[in-house]
């Protein structure tokens, strides 16, 4: 069994891969994909996720901690890159990494505390796919009849607007779109 340092090195390698995968998968989100692309190569800052609780070492937790920080500290260098801080038309162009890195280094302990004590709930989008597929299957035989969706539990209501979204399913056989993509 590997010792603690070897385990941390393995975990850090996985974390850096996750940042690289996130950057590629979410290229349409230039701020977050850009930050993650740099984090995939910056073991020092990516290592903050080693403090995350089990199952929480995800890029979105790191990004959420930084976003929370710039909302609380709008004077931080990275804040200027966040439309939620400066407004949608006031963000600079270019690469935010220098400002992001400076902010993270200056507020490392604060971010580490956020990452160690908080978590993210990210399963709504995944569940929406299954709900959309189930609703499509249920309506196939009687397309003119309305369907009702009742959601119970701690996340009740998060998917009640599933009819307002489109879900695109892709396979080797082609693509199927459920809902209105417009």
Brief account:
This protein has eight helices and two strands, in the order H-H-H-H-H-H-H-H-E-E. It has helices at 4-25, 30-39, 43-46, 59-72, 83-86, 97-106, 108-117, 124-140, and strands at 167-171, 174-178. Helix 1 packs antiparallel against helix 2 (30-39) and helix 4 crosses helix 7 (108-117).
The unreliable regions are: none
Query: Can you count the beta strands?
Result: 2
Q: What is the terminal separation in angstroms? A: 53 Å
Count of discrete alpha- or pi-helical segments spanning 4 or more residues: 8
Describe the structure.
The chain has eight helices and two strands. With 182 residues, the protein is mostly helical. A two-stranded antiparallel sheet has the order 1-2. Strand 1 and strand 2 form a beta hairpin. The longest helix has 22 residues.
